[in-house]
Write a structure and sequence with these properties.
Elements (H helix, E strand, L loop, with lengths): L1 H17 L4 H28 L3 E12 L10 E7 L5 E6 L9 E2 L6 E8 L4 E12 L1 H7 L7 E12 L3 E4 H13 L3 H25 L7 H23 L2
Parallel strand pairs: 2-8, 5-7
Antiparallel strand pairs: 1-6, 2-3, 3-4, 6-7
Length: 241
């Protein structure tokens, strides 16, 4: 609608200034057309720069995410630094188990990524978006401009388990090469022995703090899985140094 008033004002200004002969009516028509034209331009500018007739709307969505490791053997969240300073990054993750081509966050100036740790077993992604939306009446006037639902900011908050690895894509490439060298029977046997020793030591320490663990098989199984994941995480951290 505002573009229509702009066009009408411009056409009326031309007609009044060129074709109306009586001076009085020419001046009145020209002034009124000029007011309509200038008002339309001012309102378009206010809508575009000051978001006149709009309000902010914030939405939040939380979903479960999965490891970027396609084999599913380890919890992995990757990131790729972007920009000339490398202070911004794109997070890479999977939206379903053992996904061959993982997804990633949006690489733009409106998006900020945060990573938190949790003792929980599952990883989640909470996305909070703030957008401009037109007020009911203003949409009739400015809806054609395409500013409705314009993104102001997006915050992606990743909450990953403590035993997940958070490394760059470059570090992941290095890790893949080192892990390939550890696939020999001798290396696998040594790693298995070290893992068992680590879990045993951790289990003994936990039992000293809470003797009831020795009578609770479910708790033992849970702790054993947790300590095995810790060993794997520590081994990976050493590999990418």
């Amino acid at each position: 609608m505002i573009l229509a008033t702009l066009v009408i004002g411009a056409i009326a200004l031309f007609i009044c200034f060129v074709y109306i002969k009586p001076m009085t009516w020419r001046v009145i028509g020209t002034l009124l057309s000029l007011v309509l034209l200038i008002t339309s331009l001012v309102m378009i500018n206010k809508n575009d720069h000051d978001h006149y007739g709009m309000h902010k709307v914030t939405t939040t969505e939380t979903k479960k995410i999965y490891s970027a490791d396609a084999t599913g053997k380890m919890g992995l969240l990757l990131y790729q630094p972007i920009g000339s300073k490398g202070t911004e990054n794109v997070q890479i993750y999977a939206t379903k188990p053992k996904q061959k081509t993982p997804g990633h966050t949006q690489p733009n100036e409106f998006t900020t990524n945060k990573v938190k740790r949790t003792s929980a077993a599952k990883a989640t992604l909470k996305t909070t978006e703030t957008r401009w939306q037109y007020n009911k009446g203003a949409k009739i006037w400015f809806g054609i401009s395409g500013n409705n639902n314009k993104l102001i900011k997006r915050v992606n908050t990743f909450t990953i388990p403590n035993n997940w690895i958070h490394i760059t894509t470059k570090q992941a490439t290095t890790l893949k090469k080192k892990m390939a060298k550890m696939q020999t029977p001798a290396a696998q046997a040594q790693t298995k022995q070290q893992a068992e020793a680590y879990v045993k030591t951790k289990m003994q320490a936990a039992a000293q703090k809470d003797p009831s663990i020795m009578q609770d098989q479910a708790k033992q199984a849970k702790l054993s899985k947790q300590f095995a994941a810790e060993f794997q995480a520590n081994m990976i951290k050493q590999a990418i140094k």
